[in-house]
Design goal:
By secondary structure, the chain is mainly alpha-helical. It has one domain (13-419). Helices cover 86% and strands 0% of the residues. The longest helix has 48 residues, at 373-420. The protein is globular, with a radius of gyration of 21 Å.
């Protein structure tokens, strides 16, 4: 994989944000659509199995992803080439899938293990496509990312929905969704990638050969891995914090309650994808440039704007849930879920702090403050476990919602402490 190719004209920040917002909105809506399909054509237990698959696989995939896409997108000096990022992503994804397979087959029964393995496979394919997205993002061409995500979202939902409706089988739905995602990556993503870098199937086959023949290549990949490892650990801990309530609910309350909690919480997750990540992904290259050029005031002003937007949108979501939550849950899912409106309001209230934490993390990544996030997130995960241990057994999924709010506040406070520490100490 040779690194030079045609120059690509970057898009303005406003245009990139618009494309990212549209792409993430549609993709998040389609991911929610999967839950709606399962609630109407299946059961809350089916959602619970799917949620368990996500809870087990997400921390592993986040660790092995090493957040290379963000490292790549904010690599303002082009210290590493696309071939370096792609090679490391292939190696780490294979390692992650191996760990997921071992966990699924040793810790869970056959039915749960099968779901975990298929969710892991889908996430692995997504991980390969994500490093291609990183190259598009690095060139500030979020339109290509958005179009790909729209295709994967709509096509994946359609194939999943048809399969589940006619088969009543979650596994068949996951298989069809995975195949469709793979086709989009092969037919669309790689075609656009070849306009930016010299890339072909033969280049993929040469990855192993180049590693075997070059000690220098191994050393370069190892340096990149060590640079990204703190961020991989960080995102694993963020994902684990999300998974902790699900583990407690599955253990104490069972798959049905886990399915209901997941359906309620996913609306917040979708909001985080649409609002926080759309803003963060669009702004991260610009923030990295500001930081690289020593424009501290411009960097902090952009960070402050992101935080204010996150607070306002999270607060608006909570107010909307308070007034229209019962109606929304009845329409989106079934009347069974409307009985949990009070819990839904508390989950949405935590959205403001979840959005802010994600946007603060974007600034920390752009300024390469990676290592200090690890102890903060370890404390956050421990706090989540402590809150869930004290609240879930006694108060059910409402206790999980309260624990989510408390944990989000803890995370925001600790991130602000990191920003207060002088750069030389981080």
């Amino acid at each position: 994989m040779r690194a030079a190719a045609k120059p690509v004209q970057p898009l303005p920040l406003r245009v990139n944000f618009s494309w990212t917002f549209i792409g993430n909105t549609i993709y998040a809506a389609c991911q929610w659509g999967m839950l709606a399909v399962m609630s109407k054509a299946g059961s809350s237990a089916m959602i619970g199995y799917y949620s368990l698959g996500l809870a087990v696989t997400a921390p592993v995939i986040m660790l092995t992803n090493l957040q290379l896409r963000y490292i790549q997108a904010t690599d303002a000096t082009r210290e590493y080439g696309f071939n370096d990022y792609f090679t490391l992503r292939l190696i780490s994804t294979f390692a992650g899938l191996l760990v997921i397979a071992i966990m699924g087959l040793t810790l869970y029964n056959v039915d749960k293990a099968n779901v975990i393995l298929l969710v892991g496979l889908f996430k692995g394919i997504e991980a390969i496509g994500d490093i291609i997205y990183g190259r598009f993002q690095q060139s500030e061409r979020m339109d290509r990312v958005a179009i790909s995500k729209i295709a994967k979202g709509i096509g994946g939902l359609a194939s999943f929905g048809i399969a589940v409706y006619f088969s009543q089988d979650l596994l068949i739905g996951l298989i069809t969704q995975t195949v469709f995602c793979l086709l989009v990556m092969l037919l669309y993503d790689t075609k656009n990638l070849r306009q930016m870098v010299h890339f072909s199937v033969n280049d993929i086959l040469k990855v192993g050969q180049s590693l075997l023949q070059s000690d220098q290549r191994w050393k370069r990949i190892a340096r990149l891995m060590m640079l990204a490892l703190p961020l991989g650990i960080t995102t694993m801990l963020v994902s684990l914090r999300v998974s902790v309530p699900r583990f407690f609910i599955e253990h104490y309350l069972g798959e049905n309650e886990l399915g209901i909690y997941t359906a309620l919480a996913y609306i917040q997750t979708a909001g985080n994808t649409v609002v926080a990540l759309a803003l963060g992904q669009s702004a991260s290259p610009r923030m990295a440039s500001y930081y690289r050029d020593g424009k501290k005031r411009a960097f902090l002003m952009l960070q402050a704007k992101l935080v204010v937007i996150g607070l306002l949108l999270g607060g608006a979501g909570a107010l909307f849930a308070g007034f229209f939550g019962e109606l929304v849950l009845s329409v989106l899912y079934t009347p069974e879920y409307a009985a949990y409106t009070h819990t839904f309001v508390w989950i949405m209230l935590s959205s403001a702090f979840v959005y802010v934490a994600t946007l603060l993390e974007t600034g920390l990544i752009a300024s390469r403050r990676l290592v200090m996030q690890i102890p903060v997130l370890v404390l956050t995960v421990l706090a989540s476990a402590a809150f869930c241990y004290g609240l879930v057994p006694a108060q059910g999924i409402f206790g999980a919602a309260v624990a989510l709010l408390a944990t989000s506040i803890v995370q925001v406070v600790l991130y602000l402490v990191i920003f207060a520490v002088p750069r030389g100490e981080s």
